[in-house]
Write a structure and sequence with these properties.
- There is one protein chain.
- The protein has 131 residues and is an alpha+beta fold.
- The protein has a single domain, classed as Nucleoside Triphosphate Pyrophosphohydrolase, CATH 3.90.79.
- It is built from two helices and seven strands, in the order E-E-E-E-H-E-E-E-H.
- It has a four-stranded mixed β-sheet with strand order 4-1-6-5, with helices on both faces.
- Strand 5 and strand 6 form a beta hairpin.
- It is globular.
- It starts with a strand and ends with a helix.
């Protein structure tokens, strides 16, 4: 799986998507992304998924972290990128709720367990950029 931590131009907010109730880990917040096809790189998968899911074209991304997590009923491997530039205005193409959240407030949101290290890495990365 590929996921994107899409940050605002000011680098103070990140875009979150709320998982649908009928999905695995439903109603929790996540970083947009999706499955990597067998013939594509993680970066290409993320660019494709962001177009399909939230109607933006990522133009600048860098790897943040790789997370492996076993939920018991499902194991995931997330390759996560920070997206700092994109074209278009994000919309929930699949009906999902999107929200720009101040990075300092991410700990107030409920995420799937696999996303917890992503939140920690993102907060650390942004703190380093600000100093």
């Amino acid at each position: 799986m590929a996921a994107g931590a899409i940050v605002s131009a000011q680098r103070d907010k990140v875009l979150l998507a709320r998982r649908r109730a009928d999905q695995h880990q439903g109603n929790l917040w996540e970083f947009p992304g999706g499955k990597i096809e067998s013939d594509e790189s993680a970066e290409a998968a993320l660019v494709r998924e962001l177009i399909e899911e939230i109607d933006i074209a990522a133009t600048s991304l860098s790897q943040l972290i790789v997370v492996e997590h076993d939920y018991g009923d499902k194991a995931v491997r997330l390759q996560v990128f920070v997206v700092t530039e994109f074209s278009g205005d994000p919309v929930g193409v699949e009906g999902q709720t999107l929200r720009w959240v101040p990075i300092d407030e991410l700990n107030e949101y409920s995420f799937p367990e696999a996303n917890v290290p992503i939140v920690e890495a993102l907060v650390c990365a942004v703190c380093r950029q600000r100093s």
